[in-house]
Amino acid sequence: METDKPQANEHDDAPGFFDLVAEAEAQMAGITADMADVDSAAADLGAIMELMMEDMVRVSHPGAPANAKLAVLTQMAKVISGPAGELESATERLAQRMSAATIAFDAFMEWTRNTPRSEWSDDLVQMLRHMAEPSCETEPADFEEVITLIDSFGASSQHLRVPARRLITSCQNLVQLMAAVAEWRTKAVRLLEG
Question: Are 150 and 77 in contact (CB under 8 A)?
């Protein structure tokens, strides 16, 4: 006589709640490192742009030949290419980590919503309070203005198009990051108020 064996189903390989929480913790450590890379590349770009703008002011007097400005723009494109690429790479890594973390955070929020408040640990409440705090003063609309400015900047010389495109991609990745964080914040506030 054959005994009935339990049948495997499609949920056997699906991660459980604590698998997801562990994954979120791992992603958050990476997110912190990626944010440091973003900050570093952005600071480098800011310093470079400040110096290059000084050069541009020097060649922007009445009667200055266009090739003098073009020479500065060409040099600027070379100098910002590295940091623009680093910023793009860091924001792409950040976007990938956020995508992975979102699955885990959504599961965490769902679990928290379904768990009676009396069973919430102090650590869980502290985590929700931390998530409910505003993360930064920059709004996605601020990035839209920056993207428009960078696009105009990239149109000023063919040499600047590739670095400008990288900077635009970086800004778009940061806007997506901000949207994800804002959504987590909204959910955390609702749970705390609920």
Answer: no
**The pair of three-digit structure tokens given for residue 69, joined into one six-digit string:** 């400005």
Which of 14, 21, 43 has the alpha carbon at shortest distance from 109?
21
- Collapse the DSSP code of 59 into the 3-class scheme (helix H, G, I; strand E, B; otherwise coil) and give the result: coil
**39's tokens:** 């900050």
Length of the chain: 194
With helix as H, strand as E and coil as C, how does 147-188 read? HHHHHHHHHCCHHHHHHHHHHHHHHHHHHHHHHHHHHHHHHH
Secondary structure letter of residue 14 according to DSSP: S
Per-residue pLDDT 10s for the chain (194 aa) are: 555 555 656 667 777 767 777 777 777 778 888 888 888 888 888 888 888 888 888 888 888 898 998 998 899 899 999 999 999 999 999 888 888 888 888 888 888 888 899 988 888 888 888 888 876 666 667 778 888 888 888 888 899 999 999 999 999 988 888 888 888 889 989 999 98
Residues 180 and 90: their CA atoms lie apart, in Å, by 17
Contacts of 15 (CB under 8 A, 6+ apart): 23
What values do phi and psi take at 118, rounded to 5?
Answer: -65, -20
